[in-house]
Design goal:
Elements (H helix, E strand, L loop, with lengths): L1 E7 L3 H11 L7 E7 L2 H8 L6 E5 L3 H4 L3 E3 L5 E3 L5 E4 L5 H4 L4 E3 L5 H9 L6 E3 L5 H6 L5 E4 L3 H4 L6 E5 H9 L3 E9 L4 H20 L5 H7 L5 H11 L2 H4 L2 H13 L1
Parallel strand pairs: 1-2, 1-3, 7-8, 7-9
Antiparallel strand pairs: 3-11, 4-11, 5-11, 6-9, 6-10
Helix pairs in contact: 1-9, 1-10, 1-11, 5-8
Length: 259
């Protein structure tokens, strides 16, 4: 059988959603070779067409041009799922973005949303997403743009929310927040691409139907996350849009890519 490389993140939502496909629990005319990387690394690797299938930030779509094609299944969209800007001391969003702001990568959807919402960003510092909370708490930076599970844990670091960029986007557009999608490299044949889309959808459905099946796979890749945070993460980011983006999801993606 043909082997397809599939780049996705080690975050609980991805390991939960793609566990069945990775381990051959759903029908597919190919086998998967998984490559688990941070989302910004996946964004960067897409410029060289590193993987047959890959998760990409919607904020990175414009940068990869026609190298990849979006699939309708496996996406991360929704309401109440957006990135946050947090600070050590209470301050307004407008004040926070004039200071040193840590960001999880310039091609992330989070940074694209931040650039849309902020009048100016004079001093941004790139760092891996899971370092940002500590960097803010320790005073290495003044504010942090946080994604993934950090939205559940920032208060434990004594940090304050300056803005929820997901709420801002939803108020501005009345659309869900389009965080990321699964894309196929342009040289993957159309029939294989169609099979991949169906297999990814089946994998997400399998995860919904058998939520315990991926428990160990999620745990192994969740680093220091508690089972409670993993469950919150999965419940928030894996939803009906993960089965099919739908017309509303496509509208949200188009709006962000062209904004």
């Amino acid at each position: 059988m043909r082997e397809l490389t599939f780049g996705y993140s080690p975050c609980p939502n991805d390991t939960f959603a793609f566990h069945a496909l990775t381990f051959g629990l759903v029908d597919a005319p190919f086998v998967i070779k998984p490559v688990l990387l941070d989302i910004e690394e996946l964004n960067r690797r897409a410029h060289e067409g590193a993987f047959d299938l890959t998760k990409l930030s919607v904020g990175a779509f414009a940068g990869v041009g026609d190298r990849y094609t979006l699939l309708r299944s496996g996406a991360a969209l929704g309401k109440g799922v957006g990135p946050l800007v947090v600070t050590r001391t209470p301050m307004t969003f407008d004040d926070a973005v004039q200071l040193r702001v840590a960001i999880p990568g310039r091609e992330t959807t989070a940074y694209r949303l931040l650039r849309l919402a902020a009048s100016a960003l004079p001093n941004v510092v790139e760092m891996r997403y899971d370092r940002i909370l500590r960097a803010v708490a320790d005073g290495e930076v003044d504010a942090g743009l946080i994604i993934h599970e950090s939205r559940f844990t920032y208060a434990k670091h004594g940090l304050r929310k300056a803005i929820d960029l997901g709420d801002w986007w939803e108020r501005e557009t009345q659309l869900p927040v389009p965080l990321a999608g699964i894309c196929a490299r342009s040289d993957v044949p159309p029939n294989v691409r169609a099979h991949a889309e169906r297999a990814i959808r089946a994998s997400v459905q399998y995860a919904f139907d058998h939520p315990e099946a991926s428990r160990e796979y999620v745990r192994v890749h969740a680093q220091e996350l508690s089972p409670e945070v993993c469950a919150q993460h999965i419940a928030l980011y894996v939803n009906e849009y993960s089965l099919d983006i739908g017309d509303e999801g496509l509208a949200a993606i188009t709006r962000l890519v062209t904004a």
